[in-house]
Amino acid sequence: MPGQYVPDPGPPEQADAASVTLSYGPGGDGFTGKILSVRLLDGPPPLIDFDLPVEPAGAWLEVHAPQGREPAFLFPLPDPRLGHEVGAEDGTLTRSAEAGPRTASFEVPWYGPGTRITLRLGDGDRLDSRSRAGAFTLELIPNEGERGQHRAVPIARWGHDNPRALLLILIAEAFTSAEAAKFDAAADDCLRAFESLPSLQPLLRALAPVKLLLPSKASGISHKAGNTPLGARWRSAAADERVILVDERKVGRQVSNVAGRRRAQAIVIVNSPRYGGSGGASAVVSCDPQSMQGVLVHELGHSLFGLADEYSAASGYESDGEPVLPNVSGPFTPATLKWGDLVAPGTPVPTPADQPDHKVGAYEGAMYSDHLRYRPAFSCRMRDLNADFCPVCVRVIERKLTPHL
Ligand SMILES: [Zn+2]
Asked: Is residue 59 predicted with pLDDT exceeding 90?
């Protein structure tokens, strides 16, 4: 497509796959980051299904083969200039004001030693000057294999007997060994949060849930990392704090131990009755039933499926560029709308808010702005914690999970 940036696959090279966990954020004169873990995966490398817009806004990474000068693979990442996501009990979502380091896990092609990733931060700059917006490059060095001390227990649901299934690893944090039954109940609530969404029901066979009880010396968490296996803590001591942070390096070690070279996603269940959680490399959730029902699946929309937020609550972050994520658009023409093939003929775009629910169009108000950002449907789990995913997000989820069915 003219004006579109298509990666050069370079000379044909055999690629395997790797899962990378990265911490990145503002630092130095741009932004900076470090790799927390690299896990080699069995199976084919991920496919490129992401075209970089002409004026990209947000963060994305490029993968370079050892001899390759041009990137061979692109993938969108959450923008580190945004603060933490905060979900309210009524289903609305906002962003906290301050930006900070964030973590993400993603699959990339692995071309052997010397494979590098470059992380870039765009702000609508033209591609020929995109380095001004910030970039850094890291070499991928796989983890040494480790043997786990604690064994994960399969849960006999969904794709538990499907060898292609992606492992969904439910990890206990801040539960003592005497609290195993409490963890089991929370893990059950967690699975029911998925089962309650009609859009996910046909895909659950692509997921094999397992649970991992890491016995903790301390029960529960505070705003300081205590004597618990994964270092979970509330971000602040405020009574209404909702963000729970974990040590993603420790989570990554457990995922390596449980999954080996199998594809996997971690969900950390934190022993606290308070409403809270966070998204990043892993999805983190407390034992509060509303956190399970609302926040958890939304956060996996980010961490497992690479979806953008579709809510418009202001964050103080503005950009004119085109969001790199698949379910939000900047100003468009009918020919350039990312999900134009899903818009029924005769549907007006931009689409007025009074269309029947879930009719696909382009509704103004998305990704932290009320204006000039468009979302595919009036409601979606990426906008409202009480809604199911919209058809555009469902298509992204299906693409990711269908190879695992
Ligand atoms: Zn959506």
From this structure: no
**Considering all CA atoms of the chain, what is the largest pairwise distance in Å, rounded to the nearest integer?**
62
Burial state string for 52-91 with b = 16 or more CB within 10 A and e = fewer than 16? bbbbbbbbbbbbbbeebeebbbbbbbbbbbbbbbbbeeeb
Closest CA to 372 of 326, 321, 307: 321
Q: Judging by beta carbons within 10 Å of its beta carbon (0-12, 13-18, 19+), is residue 26 exposed, middle or buried?
A: middle
Domains of the chain: 16-139 (no CATH), 153-304 (3.40.390.10), 306-313+342-405 (no CATH)
- Report how far ligand 1's centroid is from the alpha carbon of 258 (Å): 31
Lowest mean pLDDT among 177-186, 219-228, 301-310: 301-310
Band (86; pLDDT cuts 50, 70, 90): confident
What six digits make up the tokens of 142?
A: 């796989």
How far apart (Å, rounded) are the C-alpha atoms in residues 4 and 172?
A: 44
Q: What are phi and psi of 17, to 5 degrees?
A: -135, 150
- 22 CA distance to ligand 1 centroid (A)? 25
SS3 of 75, please?
Answer: strand
Nearest to 397 by CA among 331, 323, 312, 304: 304
Residue 308, Cβ density class (10 Å: 0-12 exposed, 13-18 middle, ≥19 buried): buried
**Residue 286, token pair as written in the block:** 């407390």
What's the 391 CA to ligand 1 centre distance in angstroms? 7
Neighbours of ion ligand 1 (CB under 5 A): 327, 380, 382, 390, 393
Phi and psi, residue 179, nearest 5°: -105, 25
Q: Ligand 1 centre from 309 Cα, in Å?
A: 8
Coil vs helix vs strand at 310: coil
